[in-house]
Amino acid sequence: MFPYIGHDKFDPIWEELNRREAVVHLHGTQTPSSTPYPHEFLGIPIIEVPNETFKAASHLIITSKKRLYPRIKIILSHLGGSTPFLAPRVAVLSNHMGCSLSPSEILSGFQIFLFRYRVEHE
């Protein structure tokens, strides 16, 4: 499995992006889950990609990468996927699971993300 975006191996990239005050567009990947999707019309791009966006954003928060590189603006695709709804859950439960950040520090990290929503017309 390839490491998530907040992994230490990506620090040189984050350092350079921070130096440049870059804007990063974060989009989830098409990773199949451990369970099959519920219907043929609810495939991986619909079900998994928004949740992968959430997982990547959460990973940046709990690893403190977002705090370490504050000059980077990160735009989350699909209105952040499930991020706006699950951020409070991450804040409370990650702290109970040993994350050194307080719930308020975790929530404040989520508040920094920008959200992108694009509607395509036929």
UniProtKB/TrEMBL annotation:
<keyword id="KW-0862">Zinc</keyword>
<comment type="similarity">
    <text>Belongs to the metallo-dependent hydrolases superfamily.</text>
</comment>
<protein>
    <recommendedName>
        <fullName>Glycosyltransferase</fullName>
    </recommendedName>
</protein>
<keyword id="KW-0210">Decarboxylase</keyword>
<dbReference type="GO" id="GO:0046872">
    <property type="term" value="F:metal ion binding"/>
</dbReference>
<dbReference type="GO" id="GO:0005829">
    <property type="term" value="C:cytosol"/>
</dbReference>
<dbReference type="GO" id="GO:0019748">
    <property type="term" value="P:secondary metabolic process"/>
</dbReference>
<dbReference type="InterPro" id="IPR032466">
    <property type="entry name" value="Metal_Hydrolase"/>
</dbReference>
<dbReference type="GO" id="GO:0016831">
    <property type="term" value="F:carboxy-lyase activity"/>
</dbReference>
<keyword id="KW-0479">Metal-binding</keyword>
<keyword id="KW-0456">Lyase</keyword>
<dbReference type="InterPro" id="IPR032465">
    <property type="entry name" value="ACMSD"/>
</dbReference>
